Amino acid sequence: MDYYVKSVIPVIESNYENFTALEKNIADFFMKNEEKMDFSAKEIAKHLFVSEASLSRFAKKCGFRGYREFIYQYEDSLIEKQDKDGIWMRYMPNHMEVSSFHPRFNLWYAESLLEAYELTKDRKYLEAAAKTARTYAKAQQKDGTIYYVNYTDGKPSDKGSICGSAVAFAGILWIRLAGYGYDEFIPYYERSINWVLKNRYAINHPDPNLRGAVVNTRYRSKKGKVWLTSRDVGTSFGLRFIAAYYQLKYNK
After folding, report:
1. Which ranges of 90-232 would DSSP assign to H, the alpha helix?
2. Is this prediction's pTM over 0.85?
3. Do strands 158-162 and 217-222 pair parallel, antiparallel, or not at all (unpaired)?
4. CB 234 within 8 A of CB 168
5. Please, are residues 25 and 48 in contact by the beta-carbon 8 Å criterion?
6. Distance between CA atoms of 16 and 64, rounded to whole angstroms?
7. CA distances (Å), 170 to each of 92, 107, 141, 224, in order?
8. Count of CB atoms situated within 10 Å of the CB of 249
């Protein structure tokens, strides 16, 4: 499992036979998981249908003082594997060979780093998340647009596909970082909210599946054929972002 710290997995494996059936279920999750998610005890307990006390007992059987210390070590590899631009370039769907990065993948990891900060209050996680946020800030156009394909080596973004989900997801990250004192990101989330509110399909659009949706297009070509798709992921992240912005502005 290349995404996370190597040192934790052998510890889990070496203790596996001593686990109860429930603890083996927890162990299997951490050894096999490749999702980007909130690793707080509350969310993992809900995800695995176990108690937070069960997570604590599992962590202690692995030799940690508790779940917080366990997840601290589990999350720590995100920083180790992050490059100078705050991107996890060695991992798909980033493409190291051409220095391109995925519009959402790295934001998921940066969001996990913010959760690690909430668990540990160690500011190294904040700065690591800010590195990612700065790279996405550079990718954002003056009108707020973020395209699907962007580069860390100075090449201009590929304008073939517009990624509203990245505009919104980056906005969520920028809001959270600004809340921790990174005021540099305020202009970027303000651009994002203006973009999201302006770049939606009409509520009377002929296609009912697009009515009110946030623009998120993907240009594709194969064997001489070209087509353009619109994905609902723009709307799902757009709603999250609008809710976060509303809470920020109106404290509700």
Report:
1. 105-120, 123-139, 164-179, 186-198
2. no
3. unpaired
4. yes
5. yes
6. 15
7. 19, 7, 13, 34
8. 9
* Whether the Cβ atoms of residue 149 and residue 136 lie closer than 8 Å to each other: no
Mapping DSSP to helix (H, G, I), strand (E, B) and coil, where does residue 140 land? coil
Residues whose CB falls within 8 Å of the CB of residue 252, separated by 6 or more in sequence, listed in order: 246
Measured between alpha carbons, how far apart are the two ends of the chain, in Å? 40
Q: Bridge partners of 219?
A: 228
Cα(194)–Cα(144) distance, rounded to whole angstroms? Answer: 8
Classify residue 214 as exposed, middle or buried by CB count within 10 Å of its CB (0-12, 13-18, 19+).
buried
Determine the Cα–Cα distance for residues 158 and 84; give it in Å rounded to an integer.
Answer: 22
Sheet of 158-162, strands arranged across: 100-101, 147-151, 158-162
Alpha-carbon Rg for the chain, nearest whole angstrom, is 20
Residue 150: the pLDDT is 98
* φ, ψ at 31 (rounded to 5°): -75, -30
Whether the CA torsion 143, 37, 211, 148 is positive or negative: it is positive
SS3 state of residue 146: coil
What distance in Å separates the CA atoms of residue 143 and residue 100, rounded to the nearest whole number?
A: 21
Distance of CA 89 to the CA centre of its chain: 14
How deeply is 234 buried, as exposed, middle or buried, from its count of CB atoms within 10 A (0-12, 13-18, 19+)? buried
* pLDDT class of 3 with cuts at 50, 70, 90: very low
By the 8 A CB rule, do 167 and 195 touch?
A: yes
Rounded Cα gap, residues 179 and 50, in angstroms: 32
Chain segment 70-129, per-residue pLDDT in tens: 888 877 777 888 999 999 998 889 999 999 999 999 999 899 899 888 878 889 999 999
